[in-house]
Fold this protein.
Amino acid sequence: MKNILGCTGHKLRIPNISDSDGVYIFDAYGKRYMDLESGIWCTSLGHKNARINNVIKGQLDSIMHVGFCYTSEIVDTAAESILSVTGLKNGRCVFLSSGSEAVEILRQAAKHLVENPKTLVLHNAELGAYDSLTDREHGWYAFEWKNCKECTDSFICDMHSEALKRLPADITEFIFEPGSDAGFVGFPPKALIQKLVNLIRSNGGKIIANEVTTGIGRTGQWFGYQHYDIEPDMIALGKGIGNGYPVSVAVFSENVANDLDTFKYSQSHQNDPMGAAVADEVINIIKDDDLIGNAARKGQIFLSQLQSLECSNLKVRGRGLMFAIDFGNEKLAERVYNELMESGYIVCNRGSFLRIDPPLIITEAEFGKFVDNLSSIVTREGSVSAMIISRII
Ligand SMILES: Cc1ncc(COP(=O)(O)O)c(C=O)c1O
């Protein structure tokens, strides 16, 4: 990759991917990898999905891209599909190309609705790559919830009651990322989120659900916010909505859309027929194959398989098909990651833990194979770690 500026912050591990099929990708030497990262949460319906490929080919033969002053029926059809699954009936959608763009337009819309918006986020919220989302110097309030990870959720603890009282009354929006936790997979307690939502609403503020990672079935519901019994005013969708094709969607409730008559936002690839056609087909496939129900059902099974791995200090979190295994030891996690990669399994390694986001189409047999491999690696590496620790002691 001598011509590519490597600036993702991630080490390039496989430089020569040449083919793919379902949950697998293949390098140029024919080595097969099970993609348990779904290409960073994107290829939820698997690589080279035949229905998606057919839609892309069909759309290529008609119209792929249009300008601002003309459009195509598929764009409205896809918006209707999306609105029907979000429950924001009579709302409006804008199709864009990336998750960052979907969150950015919602943020700009929020700025249009109120001057100098004050935004509440959970302390580690990941909102995308744009400056207006990463620079949190002014007008942002970060709510600290890192001590809540093990909370069983049914009440608001004293610490939070105090913290909630200290939140300023002038917050105009809450951008909630329901379960991604900046890629660390964490599920804020329901009681806490409902309290925050009620607080912001009582101040007249808006709720934005950032579903770029958690949306479109990943958590065993269409959207992560549905685990919290809340209703957002705006929703950002990305990643899985395109199954690898770069399309994202900003969704506005009817009330918000009515207030955005004079709002201006334009990008060249806004409301492209191709992206809309792909998004529409993703939703059709998920419905036809009951992939939401499957994600919930398989998620329970896979979670208990991961929880039964034998390794001291191991903690496993999960919801639907989104899991994190925390080894409590960075070196051990890295060794397990390297061995998995060596034996043909791609997961994500962040610090002391591994993140696993299999495609929604993965079978129990495929995941079972992975767990068997992981289990023998963990047993081997775990005992090496224990030996090293006992020597140090
Ligand atoms: C929660 C969340 N929001 C937004 C984004 C930005 O999406 P994209 O990388 O498609 O721009 C990401 C990216 O990982 C994300 O995890």
Notes: Residues 98-100, 103, 126-129, 177, 180, 210, 212-213, 238-239 surround pyridoxal-5'-phosphate (CB under 6 Å). The chain has two domains: 51-288, 290-392.
